[in-house]
From TrEMBL:
Lineage per the UniProt record: Bacteria, Bacillati, Bacillota, Clostridia, Peptostreptococcales
Name of the protein in its database record: Pyruvate ferredoxin/flavodoxin oxidoreductase, beta subunit
Organism: Alkaliphilus metalliredigens (strain QYMF)
Stretches assigned to the Thiamine pyrophosphate enzyme TPP-binding domain: 49-196
Keyword Iron-sulfur: yes
Residue ranges of domain Pyruvate ferredoxin oxidoreductase beta subunit C-terminal in the record: 200-262
Gene3D superfamilies linked: 3.40.50.970
Length: 284
């Protein structure tokens, strides 16, 4: 039985500011779930803290609003406990690239079969607009009145360096592309990262809808772009300073689950880890 996108929304009204980019990501998730007819009971969305963290509270499926920067450990645990679930983790750029940055790197490296959506507005919105690790250098906030003196992390290049098997980037104002990217991310066999430029209309007056429209390069307009090429993906990220949308990179490498299964097929090696008194004394 197919379900309409409206059935994936619950009775809770979003408290996001009017115009916030996160509305579009919420809608894209609902449309994707409806298109794929994901059973409500097989769909789990796990979020961290921040305006983005509210996402799981607005969906009619299993959800877990966890602690700051920890959506990925929870989501990976859920997927490992029940491989039949479609598991999505979601969080802001602060959640994923500051307090949770270590989890992001290791989740990418581990390649568990799940999707991570970053709601990237280059600012901490919930705490009233201070710089995040992805804020542009020179970005002025109440905590950095002369402008940020830190160079921002580059999420795409960071993900590629950690061994991403699927990297896509979307924009809240490109809703159709966003649905396509999330659909392909869910279908990917391994860890898929979708970094979505999602403007904070209240606290980031630099990286606005207009700014992104003027600066983003849409790879869907480039007929010859080949996302299977690692070097090409890195070149694209460097040339555009990370400001591109579409599937940046996709590689087929065995997921964590596949590697575990193949490891089960290997004979256990009986290692003798004892050490004699003489050997011990030589080491001291
Ligand atoms: Fe969205 Fe920014 Fe408002 Fe938070 S503060 S709901 S990120 S517009």
């Amino acid at each position: 039985m197919t379900s309409s996108m409206k059935e994936y929304s619950n009775q809770v009204s979003p408290t996001w500011c009017p115009g916030c980019g996160h509305f579009s990501i919420l809608r894209a998730l609902q449309v994707t779930a409806s298109n794929l007819s994901i059973p409500f009971e097989n769909f789990a969305v796990i979020t961290g803290i921040g305006c983005s963290g509210r996402l799981s509270g607005y969906l009619n499926c299993y959800g877990f609003h966890g602690i700051h920067g920890r959506s990925l450990p929870i989501a990976q645990g859920i997927k490992m406990a029940n491989k039949n679930l479609v598991v999505i983790a979601a969080g802001g750029d602060g959640d994923g690239f500051a307090i949770g940055a270590n989890h992001t790197l290791h989740a990418i490296r581990r390649n568990i079969n799940m999707t991570y959506i970053v709601l990237n507005n280059q600012v901490y919105g919930l705490t009233k607009g201070h710089t995040s690790p992805l804020s542009d250098e020179g970005f002025q906030t109440k905590s950095t009145p002369r402008g940020s003196i830190h160079a921002p992390l580059k999420p795409g290049i960071t993900a590629m360096s950690a061994g991403a098997s699927f990297l896509a980037q979307g924009f809240s104002a490109f809703p159709d592309q966003l649905v396509e990217l999330i659909t392909k991310a869910i279908a990917h066999d391994g860890f898929s990262l979708v970094n979505v430029f999602s403007p904070c209309v209240t606290f980031n007056k630099n990286n606005t809808y207009q700014w992104y429209r003027e600066n983003l390069v849409n790879l869907d307009d480039h007929d010859h772009y080949d996302p299977s090429q690692y070097q090409g993906a890195m070149d694209q990220l460097i040339e555009t300073d990370g400001l591109c949308t579409g599937i940046i990179y996709q590689q087929n490498r065995p997921s964590y689950q596949e590697r575990l299964q193949s490891e089960d097929a290997l004979p256990l090696v009986d290692l003798d880890l004892t050490i004699s008194k003489d050997e011990f004394e030589k080491l001291m």
